[in-house]
Each structure stands twice: as structure tokens, then as C-alpha cells.
């Protein structure tokens, strides 16, 4: 089997699985901080109960996210040593700051928050969870600073003696305009993720008619976060697409299924039949003028012209045999799945909030089941968004500087890659199953569960009504 394919598959599998938990951790930490803030402000016990209960779900996701993040870092030494050699000076700086500042910040204040409910005053304890939330957001910032360099290299020079990229300005790295369109998009998407995990889990408990007041209030907060996050994500995504059109026109053309230059003003393809062998769009259903209205440009180049431009620019460095055409169907439909699920979640949040305030949603089982299914929607949207972002950078790991083919470890074998792929897949399957079981068990117990052994020790009747 092809070594490059196996290495890419392993990295993709590892990153997708890890990225399930990153937005969830960021979003859940923010949601718990909001709930505890409401407790401190309103002095209502139910908000403290909510912060504790949903905090348990956050902690489970955070723990699995840490494990998968460590596994992902192994990839750079195992399969991508040439990439690490080329990018180490640049990639290492933000990763070191992420580990030394953001991750230590999260870890320290998570411990204080977990065990400090009865040891600190309310406002100081609230500060802990906000510092955890800020820490999770800062972690994303430093990781995306490295990723944005791969999308749009800035503030670097190439050492002619070593052939390595070297950072010339850390501030310049942070000024990368790609970072400031990527970061809000990821951050707001994480808020949506946390909101819909809470809303969907609450809907599941409401179907069982358990702790209705608690879960209706939880669902209300989850849907508010989901709605605000969805609107902000759509806005941030729009700005990112404008940046992509300027920085990576081939990626943009593939996302829109455009082989030939558009007419002026440009239409937007809702759906299309794309023939990758003949390199043409057979038919499409389009909305006239919409792409111009969304992107602000009268005309966009297609993949054929983008391919010609890339060959003109890079043939002298990388040779004429490099294929600049992208997996068009994956990018085209991936973008639509991402945007479609994002829009669907915004609509679901609006409808859910309206029916909650009308006190009708608990009687609409089909809609509650839709919200239960909706737990998966932000994860689907996040995954497709990541695939579009990363696959659209081909054939480079660092756009215009370093190719994927040159990034693979020279000593790795197909056999070792195949074995490690199987091991990682089994490991992720086990971790995913454990995560699901623990989260389901925590939600099933509810916020007021008392362990029978603890109840007996405290003199509580474990079989009393409302205890179990």
C-alpha cells in the first residue's frame, strides 16, 4: 500500500477523533462558566446544580481530549519527520506556548474548580471556571496560529544552509490574517457544540420526564448558546471564505464546483454534478448573483485557470508533474454539509427556544428526539469544516513551501503504518465507547442522584422517593 496515503489516513483519523473533543471542551467550559455566573448573580441553587452536573460532562470530554491530543503529537515524530524538520522552528513556538501557558492554566484551575466548591468563596470559585474557559480558548489560539501559517506562511525566512523555515517574528506570526478568520470560526463553532450537547442531552431526559425544571432550564441555556454561536459562526465562516478566495483560489473554486471562470455577477451552486475525470461540471442548480453578493467579487476564477496559475508560479520549484487539482467532490459537498448543518442548528435553536418559552416542547416527542439526534450535528459540521480546510491545502503541508510528499518520514514502512493504523483505530474506538458510556451514565443519573452507599452512610433512605 502507498506510504503517503497510509500516513495521511492515520493523521486524518487521529485529528478528526481529537477534534471531536476540542470544540466540546471549549464549548462546555464556556457553558458551565455561564451557568455558575448565573448562580453567583441570581443566588438560585438550580444554577449551581447545573454548573456541577454539566461540569462532569465537560471533565469527561476534557480527559479524553487530552489523551487523544498526546496521541496526535506522536504523529509528527512517527510519520512526518521531514515536515517536523522543515517546520520545527515555527510550529514549535506556538505549541510550546500552548503547553506551558494554556494547558497548564487549564489543568491547574480545573483542579481548583473541581475540589474547591466548599473551600473558596463563590466569586473566587467562579473565577476558576472562567480561567479554565479562557485557557481552553487560548489553547485553540496557539494551535491555530501554527495551522494558519500552513495555510498562509508569514514572518519566516528559509535558511539556505539547512533548508529549514525559520521564524523571523513571533508577533508577525500572530498577525497572520488567516489566524483571525480561522480562530473566531472555530471558537464560535465550539460554543455551538457545547450548547447542542447540553440541549440534546436535556431533551433526552425530558423524554423520560425526569427533573423537568432542571433540564428545561439547561436546554434553554444550551439553545441560547447554540443560536448565538450559530449566527456568529456563520458570520465568521463568511469572512474566512473571503480570505480563502484571495489566498487559495484553487480551494475556493473546488468548494464551489467551478472549473471554468464564473460569469459576472457570479452565481452560487446549490448542488452540482461534478465529473472529476473530464474535469467539468455536468449540471448545476444555481442562485444567480448570490456568490457575488456573498463574496463581494463580480467574477471568480475556476479550477482550470487556478491550475494554470499555480503551474506558472511553482513549476520552477516543484516541477511540472505536480497535480494541483483537489478532491473536488469532497470539498464541494463537505462545504455544503458544514454550512447546511450550521444553518439547521440555528433554525432548530430558534424553534426550540420559542416552544420552550411557550411551555410546549415537552409535549412534542418528535422534536425532542430531533434535538437528541442534534447532539451529533455540530460534530458533523466541525468534521466537514476541518476536512475542507485541510484537504484544500493539497499538495502542500505548508502552502507554496513544502509538499505532502516531501513531508513523510523517510524510514517509515507500509507495514508499520498499516499496523499502527489498526492499533490507533481500535484505541480510538475503545476511547470513544468509554466516553459515550460515561457521558450517558452521568446524564442518566441526573443532577440529584445519590449513591446508595453514600446515602446509607449519611443516614438517607436510598429508596426514598426522589433519591434514585
TrEMBL record:
UniProt KW Acyltransferase keyword: no
Source species, domain of life: Bacteria
Location of the protein in the cell: Cell membrane
Keyword annotations from UniProtKB, A to Z: Cell membrane, Electron transport, Heme, Iron, Membrane, Metal-binding, Transmembrane, Transmembrane helix, Transport
Biological-process GO terms, alphabetical: aerobic electron transport chain
Transmembrane segments: 20-41, 53-71, 91-115, 127-145, 186-207, 219-237, 333-356, 368-388, 417-439
Pfam families, per database record: Cyt_bd_oxida_I
InterPro entries per record: Cyt-d_ubiquinol_oxidase_su_1
GO molecular function: electron transfer activity; heme binding; metal ion binding; oxidoreductase activity, acting on diphenols and related substances as donors, oxygen as acceptor
GO cellular component term of the entry, any: cytochrome complex
Membrane topology of the entry: Multi-pass membrane protein
Family per similarity comment: Belongs to the cytochrome ubiquinol oxidase subunit 1 family.
Protein known as: Cytochrome ubiquinol oxidase subunit I
Organism (species): Vagococcus martis
Lineage, opening ranks: Bacteria, Bacillati, Bacillota, Bacilli, Lactobacillales
Amino acid at each position: 500500500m502507498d506510504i503517503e496515503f497510509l500516513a495521511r489516513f492515520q493523521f486524518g483519523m487521529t485529528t478528526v477523533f481529537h477534534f471531536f473533543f476540542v470544540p466540546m471542551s471549549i464549548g462546555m467550559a464556556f457553558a458551565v462558566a455561564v451557568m455558575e455566573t448565573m448562580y453567583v448573580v441570581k443566588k438560585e441553587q438550580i444554577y449551581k446544580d447545573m454548573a456541577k452536573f454539566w461540569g462532569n460532562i465537560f471533565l469527561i470530554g476534557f480527559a479524553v481530549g487530552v489523551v487523544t491530543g498526546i496521541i496526535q503529537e506522536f504523529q509528527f515524530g512517527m510519520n512526518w519527520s521531514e515536515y517536523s524538520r522543515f517546520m520545527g522552528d515555527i510550529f514549535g513556538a506556538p505549541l510550546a506556548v500552548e503547553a506551558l501557558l494554556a494547558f497548564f492554566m487549564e489543568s491547574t484551575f480545573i483542579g481548583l474548580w473541581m475540589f474547591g466548591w466548599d473551600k473558596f468563596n463563590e466569586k473566587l470559585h467562579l473565577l476558576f471556571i472562567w480561567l479554565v474557559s479562557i485557557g481552553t480558548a487560548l489553547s485553540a489560539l496557539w494551535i491555530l496560529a501554527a495551522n494558519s501559517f500552513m495555510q498562509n506562511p508569514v514572518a519566516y525566512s528559509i535558511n539556505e544552509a539547512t533548508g529549514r523555515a525559520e521564524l523571523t517574528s513571533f508577533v508577525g506570526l500572530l498577525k497572520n490574517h488567516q489566524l483571525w478568520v480561522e480562530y473566531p470560526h472555530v471558537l464560535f463553532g465550539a460554543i455551538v457544540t457545547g450548547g447542542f450537547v447540553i440541549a440534546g442531552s436535556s431533551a433526552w431526559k425530558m423524554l423520560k420526564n425526569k427533573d423537568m425544571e432542571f433540564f428545561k432550564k439547561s436546554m434553554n441555556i444550551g439553545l441560547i448558546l447554540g443560536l448565538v454561536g450559530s449566527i456568529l459562526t456563520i458570520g465568521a465562516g463568511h469572512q474566512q471564505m473571503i480570505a480563502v478566495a484571495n489566498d487559495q483560489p484553487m480551494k475556493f473554486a473546488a468548494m464551489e464546483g467551478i472549473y471554468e471562470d464564473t460569469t459576472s455577477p457570479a452565481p452560487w451552486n446549490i448542488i452540482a454534478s461534478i465529473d472529476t475525470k473530464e474535469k467539468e461540471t455536468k449540471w448545476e442548480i444555481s442562485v444567480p448573483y448570490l456568490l457575488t453578493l456573498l463574496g463581494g467579487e463580480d467574477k471568480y476564477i475556476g479550477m482550470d485557470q487556478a491550475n494554470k496559475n499555480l503551474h506558472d508560479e511553482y513549476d520552477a520549484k516543484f516541477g511540472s508533474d505536480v497535480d494541483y487539482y483537489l478532491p473536488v467532490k469532497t470539498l464541494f459537498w463537505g462545504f455544503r454539509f458544514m454550512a447546511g448543518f450550521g444553518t439547521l442548528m440555528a433554525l432548530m435553536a430558534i424553534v426550540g427556544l420559542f416552544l420552550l418559552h411557550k411551555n410546549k416542547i415537552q409535549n412534542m416527542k418528535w422534536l425532542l428526539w430531533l434535538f437528541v439526534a442534534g447532539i451529533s450535528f455540530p460534530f458533523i459540521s466541525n468534521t466537514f469544516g476541518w476536512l475542507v480546510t485541510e484537504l484544500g491545502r493539497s499538495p502542500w503541508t505548508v502552502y507554496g513551501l513544502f509538499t505532502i510528499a516531501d513531508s513523510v518520514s523517510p524510514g517509515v514502512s507500509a507495514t508499520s503504518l498499516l499496523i499502527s493504523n489498526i492499533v490507533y483505530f481500535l484505541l480510538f474506538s475503545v476511547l470513544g465507547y468509554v466516553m459515550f458510556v460515561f457521558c450517558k451514565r452521568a446524564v442518566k443519573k441526573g443532577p440529584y442522584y445519590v449513591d446508595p452507599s453514600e446515602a446509607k452512610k449519611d443516614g438517607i433512605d436510598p429508596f426514598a422517593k426522589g433519591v434514585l
